[in-house]
Write a structure and sequence with these properties.
The chain is of the alpha/beta class. It is built from 9 helices and 15 strands. It has 2 domains: about 240 residues, TIM Barrel, CATH 3.20.20; about 70 residues.
Amino acid sequence: MSVSLFCENLGAFPADRTKALDARLRAEGLSGLEALYVLVWPDYEPPNPPRPQDNRAAFDAYRQASGVPLWAWFNARADQAADAAAIATLEPELDPAGWKLDIEGEWTKGAKLSTLIAGAKATGKPLSASLAAITASHAEYDYRGLDNADIEVDWQAYFDSLEGPDPAPAVAELYQSRFVLAGWEYRHRLGSVYGWGKVISTNVPRARFDSYKRPGSSDASFEVGARQWGATVVDRTLRRDGVEVGLLMGRARYDKIRGTLDVTRGAPGKHSLDEWTKIATSSRFPKSRKHPISIYLASKNVSNNVIVTIARGAA
């Protein structure tokens, strides 16, 4: 089990607190802080704090004082070439332990992330992507591109702010799609081989699925139910001519999934510690050998008790 924290403003979460929190987690038999994701891009000019440029200026001193791995939290934009260039510039300046690519917004719809991914991969550092929308099945991100680049997917469950679902459905959609759209890509197992394919129709009661492992053919179908748009998955079993041939899956590999719990907008005060334990526990998913969890945001408004409780629940 591991826990990571998003930090928008290093000034609001001092290094000595981070160091003490890491020591407390380890003393309680947990893994300590895996990472602190520090917002470093793009710049914001006053009077609109926080300022990522201030975080960059404090980055190295904070790393030395806290003893915790600092990742560069990078808010991606539509101009992927410009973002890739920014990453190339920031990499030697910061030398982070890894890069957290925060990918969200209207620009992502249908956009392939190859340019951004290539720029981040060129650093040679570990990468993970932070995504958010209502559910993974409703969000048109380039999941296949992220998966092919071996990038972990971190799903943001902003349940208290009403910007997203509870952790259980938020994370579940990554490994087991319960809702599909025609033309969208999903992972699958065909025989004993895992890969990607596309839902090519959602005509009730059976949707048709085309595996990229068998290009040019309609490989299989699975059972669906009607809804206002798209289709609800009734049975994920893929069949061809009535014979079971595989399984419809989700949009990320089991070993590349983690969840993010939102503790902003007064969320810590809305739940008791027992309730936070249940919330964190609900973010787990079957077949995972680990249950990594991230917390958004590390600030003076969230207590160490809440962070430790979430870490225990995820474990």
